[in-house]
Design brief:
The complex is a heterodimer. Chain A is of the alpha/beta class. Chain A has one domain (12-234): P-loop containing nucleotide triphosphate hydrolases (Rossmann fold, 3-Layer(aba) Sandwich). Chain A has helices at residues 55-62, 85-91, 107-112, 127-140, 155-168, 185-200, 212-218, 236-239, 242-249, 277-283; strands spanning 17-26, 29-39, 44-48, 70-75, 78-79, 92-95, 173-177, 204-208, 221-226, 229-234, 251-258, 261-269. In chain A, the strands form three sheets. In chain A, strands 6-7-8-3-9-10 form a six-stranded mixed beta sheet, sandwiched between helices. Chain A has a four-stranded antiparallel beta sheet with strand order 2-1-4-5, with helices on one face. By secondary structure, chain B is mostly helical. Chain B has one domain: ABC transporter involved in vitamin B12 uptake, BtuC, CATH 1.10.3470. In chain B, helix 3 packs parallel to helix 10, helix 4 runs antiparallel to helix 6 (127-146) and helix 13 (269-281) runs parallel beside helix 15. The longest helix of chain B is centred in the N-terminal third of the chain and has 36 residues, at 57-92. The two termini of chain B are 23 Å apart. The chains are: A alpha/beta, B mainly alpha. At the A-B interface, helix 2, strand 6 and helix 3 of A face helix 10, helix 11 and helix 14 of B.
């Protein structure tokens, strides 16, 4: 990916996130209990865990879309309560799971929505905003179809536009919920490379992932949630220990390494019967 | 919504100037037609002289006291309904939304019908429009109270429809119980919507709330843009949706309440106009608010000129014309949108 234009790098500790003792209850259900974690600028964090583990809720709590029952979240050293919604929107960009669009806006218009937290006049963007929109489209590789309405794009193209929208905010912290869920293998790799590049440029990137192989390869650090609790946090090699994955996900995994990069492949449900002879051969 | 020099051409380039120029020309034309047409046909020279106060007394009276307030009301009400429709469609992300959806229209109509039914409108001047405005504001306050704490738009729409139905049923009840056929006729005719016999008193009454409503609706234009990505993402982009909701509902109550208060129910305009603007200007909600207001103003003034020249013994009612012309037009628009794949 050669990006002709660069987004401004975040300054100082703006891209830091500190969560301490966070508990969230939605309705009558305790979704998160006592989550604590810290992350700094330039890191790429993978949030993994089974369905209902509370991964999305954790991201939503950082965006103040759900109110915590207990605990504190600090972004750039400041508690969430001390930030206005607008200031928080400039500090934290959030891409929700399966982001959809209600009107057939053009690619450029969608990406420009990422500038809304920075205010500006109606319609036209401030010069800096226009430059950030250009840079975001260039980075995500959607400049060539900038004028097309979003509903005429393929799934992979749409996903890149939605990512460009988040990039255009130029926030020091990026939260991305299942960015590769509906993409083909090529676009999955491309998306993960894009996110890793963002982290390398000094941003903090936190992304929810279900693909353990991608999580293992592209993230600096993994955080494993299960049942609303933080089970493990650290380098992929440690968090993805087979016994730990079996306990959290209920699956047995195949693991290995190639050129120094680890890979993980979910293989069989842990509660399934004994393996058939054919499968036994395959594991060899 | 001006086109500035040096601005990059947008997606469907070059669309901006042409429709706006066309709209301005149509606006001037409709102003002239509206002042010149009626039972007494006037030439352009007469109209101009009367506007400057230099025509004979009769022409002065016709233009300044009969036709001018009527034109101003048509423009203001058309703008209010067009903008309220565009704002609600943007806010609710629903192309079916229209100004009457949340119940403000029926509430105002109920207030007016009560004024007619109990003879208040005959006894106290302006009792009808004031009661209608009050009912619209009260109903929207009730709607906010009912939907307090809920965030989604579905709850708001359903509560609005429920309120609207209750007010509609109460109007029917009063029609049902009305002591004599003439009272029932008066109510029924009033409900059809008209700008006949309106004076500058009505303009003074309706214009401030409509302008205040427009201002409230325009306030949140960027929140409507953000909402095209859904409510959670709009919040993550820095918008406080609880406050947006109060402003939008307040704006609709003021603009629609005041419109119904002086002119009765004028349907379809607020639904159709944003679709026309969208076909021209693309779908971005913030870009549709002012053009929808302008388009609504021109179209309602056109419709009001039409009812005046239509040969019939009873005056054709404005609300009837907007629905009769609007509905087939909407079908045509939907067909056109389907064809272009939008």
């Amino acid at each position: 990916m050669n990006a002709p234009l660069c987004l401004p790098p975040p300054v100082g500790e703006a891209g830091s996130l500190a969560v301490s003792g966070l508990s969230v209850t939605l309705g009558t259900r305790r979704v998160l209990s006592g989550i604590s974690l810290t992350a700094g600028p330039g890191e790429m964090i993978g949030l993994i865990g089974p369905n209902g583990a509370g991964k999305s809720t954790l991201l939503r709590a950082v965006c103040r879309l759900v109110e915590p029952e207990a605990g504190e979240i600090r972004v750039g050293g400041l508690p969430l309560r001390a930030l206005s919604r607008r200031a928080l929107a400039r500090a934290v960009a959030y891409l929700e799971q399966g982001q959809s669009l209600h009107w057939p806006l053009s690619v450029e218009e969608v990406v420009a929505l990422g500038r809304l937290p920075h205010g500006g006049r109606v319609g036209a963007l401030d010069p800096e905003g226009a430059a950030d929109v250009e840079a975001a489209m260039a980075r995500a590789g959607c400049t060539e179809y900038r004028a097309r309405p979003l509903d005429t794009l393929s799934g992979g193209e749409k996903a890149r536009v939605m990512l460009a929208r988040v990039l255009a905010t130029a926030a020091p912290v990026m939260l991305v919920d299942e960015p590769v869920a509906s993409l083909d293998p090529y676009h999955q790799l491309r998306m993960m490379e894009l996110l890793r590049d963002e982290a390398r440029s000094g941003r903090l990137v936190v992304c929810v992932l279900h693909d353990l192989a991608l999580a293992a390869r592209f993230c600096d650090r993994l955080v494993l949630l299960a049942g609303g609790r933080l089970v493990a946090s650290g380098p992929a090699g440690r968090v993805l220990a087979p016994a730990r994955l079996e306990a959290a996900f209920g699956v047995e995994t195949l693991q290995g390494a190639r050129d120094g990069e680890a890979w993980v492949l979910p293989w069989r449900r842990a509660d399934a019967g004994p393996p058939s002879p054919a499968e036994t051969t395959a594991t060899l | 919504m001006s086109t500035k020099a040096g601005e990059r051409p947008q997606a469907r380039g070059g669309f901006r100037l042409a429709p706006l120029a066309g709209l301005a020309a149509a606006g001037l034309l409709v102003v002239w037609v509206s002042l010149a047409t009626g039972p007494v046909a006037l030439g352009a020279g007469d109209v101009l002289a009367a506007l400057l106060g230099r025509a004979d007394a009769l022409t002065n009276t016709i233009v300044l006291e009969i036709r001018l307030p009527r034109l101003l009301l048509a423009l203001a009400i058309g703008a209010g309904l067009g903008c309220a429709g565009a704002a609600l469609q943007g806010y609710l992300r629903n192309p079916l939304a229209e100004p009457a959806l949340l119940g403000a229209s029926n509430a105002a109509a109920l207030g007016a019908v009560i004024a007619i039914y109990y003879g208040l409108s005959a006894a106290v001047p302006l009792a009808l429009p004031l009661l209608a405005c009050g009912f619209a504001l009260g109903a929207m306050a009730l709607l906010l109270l009912l939907t307090r704490g809920s965030r989604g738009s579905l709850g708001l729409i359903l509560s609005g429809i429920a309120l609207s139905s209750v007010f509609g049923a109460l109007i029917s009840l009063l029609l049902n119980l009305s002591p004599n056929p003439f009272a029932a006729m008066e109510i029924a005719f009033w409900l059809l919507g008209s700008l006949d016999d309106r004076s500058f008193t009505h303009v003074a009454l309706a214009l401030p709330p409509i302008l205040a409503g427009l201002a409230l609706l325009l306030w949140d234009r960027r929140a409507f843009d953000a909402l095209s990505l859904g409510e959670e993402t709009a919040q993550s982009l820095g918008f406080d949706l609880a406050r947006v909701r109060v402003r939008v509902i307040g704006g609709v109550a003021l603009a629609v309440g005041a419109s119904v208060a002086v002119a009765g129910s004028i349907g379809f305009l607020g639904l159709v106009v944003p679709h026309m603007a969208r076909l021209w200007l693309g779908a971005r909600p913030s870009r549709l608010l002012l053009p929808s207001a302008a388009l609504g103003a021109v179209l309602l003034a056109c419709a009001d000129s039409l009812v005046r020249v239509f040969p019939s013994t009873n005056e054709l009612k404005l609300g009837v014309v907007t629905a009769l012309v609007g509905a087939p037009f909407l079908i045509h628009l939907l067909h056109a949108m389907h064809r272009t794949g939008r």
